[in-house]
Fold this sequence. Notes:
Elements lengths: L1 H10 L1 H18 L3 H6 L9 H12 L7 E2 L9 H11 L11 H14 L9 H10 L6 H17 L2 H11 L6 E2 L1 H9 L8 H9 L14 H16 L3
Amino acid sequence: xxxxxxxxxxxxxxxxxxxxxxxxxxxxxxxxxxxxxxxxxxxxxxxxxxxxxxxxxxxxxxxxxxxxxxxxxxxxxxxxxxxxxxxxxxxxxxxxxxxxxxxxxxxxxxxxxxxxxxxxxxxxxxxxxxxxxxxxxxxxxxxxxxxxxxxxxxxxxxxxxxxxxxxxxxxxxxxxxxxxxxxxxxxxxxxxxxxxxxxxxxxxxxxxxxxxxxxxxxxxxxxxxxxxxxxxxxxxx
Length: 237
């Protein structure tokens, strides 16, 4: 009997793969944190999966640090920082439905045709989902779950709310989470008072916040600041 099942799988490999993928998606769907996502409409998260991970890392590390995390409403965050984050991280934030399939397609095409490295292609919503709920693992099953939760989040929350949560939970250095803490630590002022230049410097550090910060003098970081400044100007910000 097992031999017959094995033969059927081999003879119908494509259908078997599709069936397996379908089962995985169904399982992932029913394991979604739906109630948690709905609660985010009115409740601010007190912690995230990433903060928990950093606490665990700190406990095991010789270089311990305290988690600094303070929530502020969107109205108390500079418009310059909002614009800089969108331009830097997700230029089509207000038009896509969570996953930028066009960006993913272009990234894969560039990888296969021109041997260029795969770009992250993660939207702000995807990054928020990873911060709130998921491990940093890069395995395919986790990616599928990320996509499903992302699409669900986009249907349950407004873009304004997604951006507000993102700006408050994003990592900006060792133990530093959220725009308010980053602004206070790096510039000695509230997030509402950030200038355009300061906002650009904060947004430019997002891809690697544990190695880059607004006071970094590294060539790579300064080049990123210059590129983001040019893109901001081109977009009229």
